[in-house]
Specification:
Shape: globular
CATH topology of the largest domain: Rossmann fold
Helix content: 25-40%
Distance between the termini: 28 Å
Number of helices: 17
Largest sheet: 7 strands, mixed
Number of domains: 3
CATH class of the largest domain: Alpha Beta
């Protein structure tokens, strides 16, 4: 592959990096070079390998193979602190700020200057170093003694950047840095990145938003499916070409689509916040919501199911109108599959049978009682139907693989016999075989006039499964259009904001 930085002093050179997690190859011979004073955008769809590559660079993961060189010297940090000492700092989308500490304590956390033979922390020196770092960024207005909890998101991000600069940053990694910033804050951040590059710092900028990549970077590198998929000079490459390199493939035959016939409207959402969302879901269809991380898709689903407040607008489920609790939605035959199956999708300390049946105990015994033999029979039926690999219905659900846990979560919706299935990233983190089974299950449900509202970051999945798709970008939901009007390119263009760039 051509290397646009061959003729420039390389600050960082990563070559043939490999990393696997069990049988899954996350990175396969990936290379990335960044010059001193260059802003290099690292782009790719969710799951492309960006986070794994940057975790290796920042010392949070060790590569299985490959080499890294920093300013001509072999580089292999044993942990993030060692990376930070070497001058490599990563600022995550979720800021790692300790709110109960002061600004200067956050800037020098783990690297506090000391004095005297007993190694007491030199707070005066801490204040001087923190003030100098903030002034260097042009933000001497942030007081070193200020409580971090009192600062805005933009100011907290500056504190993280100051933390990197205070110890001599040579490579700065910014992971989706604008996700919680206002437009004015974004413009100020971009000016700051430009000043850092002028000082010779190499910046790796990770973003899904192509218009940001075009504004802030000199060069871009594309990852796709854990491999290098392209790179180029940003100013010389149209947005459409970058998106095409990110997509790079057509649909395959993984997706089951039988004959479908849309019936009556069963869910109507009118001008609901968040997202000023308006949509109608019909029986017998899969309506997809595309979007990137942080676009607001999950907040919308949670609002529909009653897990988040609806500040304005109206939701109608069949004959029921208005807000409802999750228990109320279950009674209205609406089921929700959370993207966080470990945090709220499943009860990890309980059995497979309990997880499948707790939302709907009526068939299992009289007067709210559970007859164990009935519960076992029900669970065994779903285990067989969904092909859940387990030792039995009493096995703890935490002992199952990710794909089998997801099948248990889906079995709960099937046992409840819901009419509306709200599915948030139903195939994230599971193997291909389990994905195919879930696709088949969704198609079977729709053939029985169930309605499915599907959120996915994986656009081929939406194109393969959905009848209509709407795109959510920066907190606003666009109109739903027939799936034949979309392709991966147009979905990514809309979701990333590239169409407006």
């Amino acid at each position: 592959m051509a290397d646009p930085v061959n003729n420039v002093a390389k600050r960082l050179d990563m070559r043939a990096i490999r990393r696997s997690f069990g049988a899954t190859t996350a990175l396969d011979e990936v290379s990335l070079s960044v010059a001193a004073g260059e802003v290099c955008a690292l782009v790719g769809q969710n799951g492309a390998g960006k986070s794994t590559l940057m975790a290796i660079l920042a010392g949070a993961l060790q590569p299985d193979a490959g080499t890294m060189v920093l300013d001509g010297v072999p580089y292999r940090p044993r942990d993030p602190l060692a990376a930070r000492h070497a001058g490599v700092a990563m600022i995550h989308q979720e800021l790692s700020i300790a709110p109960h500490l002061s600004v200067m304590e956050n800037i020098l956390l783990g690297m506090e200057p000391t004095r005297g033979p007993l190694g007491f922390i030199d707070r005066s020196r801490m204040r001087q170093i923190a003030a100098a770092a903030l002034a260097e960024l042009g933000h001497g207005d942030i007081a070193p003694d200020a409580a971090a909890a009192d600062l805005s998101p933009a100011a907290l991000q500056l504190v993280e950047i100051a933390r990197a600069c205070a110890v001599g940053c040579r490579v700065l990694i910014l992971d989706e840095p604008t996700s919680s910033l206002s437009r004015d804050d974004v413009r100020r951040l971009f000016r700051l990145i430009g000043r850092l590059a002028e000082r010779g710092i190499a910046v790796v900028y990770i973003s899904h938003f192509i218009e940001e990549v075009k504004q802030v970077s000199n060069r871009f590198v594309v990852l796709r499916d854990g491999r290098n998929a392209g790179e180029g000079v940003t100013a010389e490459t149209p947005s459409e070409a970058i998106v095409s390199q990110m997509v790079g493939r057509s649909l395959d035959d993984l997706y089951h689509r039988g004959e479908r016939s849309a019936g009556e409207a069963i869910v109507q959402v009118e001008a609901v916040q968040p997202g000023d969302a308006t949509l109608t879901l019909y029986r017998g269809e899969v309506l997809g919501i595309a979007g990137l991380l942080g676009s607001g898709r999950t907040r919308l689903l949670r609002a529909i199911f009653g897990l988040a407040p609806v500040t304005s607008g109206r939701i109608r489920i069949g004959a029921f109108s208005g807000a409802a609790s999750p228990a109320g939605r279950w009674r209205q035959r609406v089921g929700f599959l959370s993207e966080d199956r470990h945090g709220e999708g499943l009860a990890p300390g309980m059995s497979i049978a309990d997880n499948m049946t707790l939302s709907h105990l009526d068939p299992l015994g009289p007067y709210g009682l559970v007859v164990p033999s009935r519960q076992r029979a029900v669970a065994a039926r779903w285990i067989e139907r969904l092909g859940i690999r387990c030792s039995g219905e009493r096995q703890n659900v935490a002992e199952l693989s990710g794909g089998n846990q997801q099948k248990v979560a889906l079995a709960r919706l099937l046992h409840h016999d819901v009419d509306v299935l709200i599915l948030d990233e139903p195939t994230r983190g599971i193997d291909v075989a389990s994905k195919v089974q879930i696709y088949q299950l969704i198609d079977d449900l729709v053939a029985r006039q169930k309605a499915v509202l599907l959120v996915s970051s994986y656009f081929p999945e939406l194109l393969g499964m959905c009848d209509r798709i709407a795109v959510m970008a920066r907190g606003r939901l666009g109109p739903a259009r027939n799936v034949t009007e979309w392709n991966e390119h147009s979905l990514l263009m809309d979701a990333s904001g590239a169409r407006a760039s």
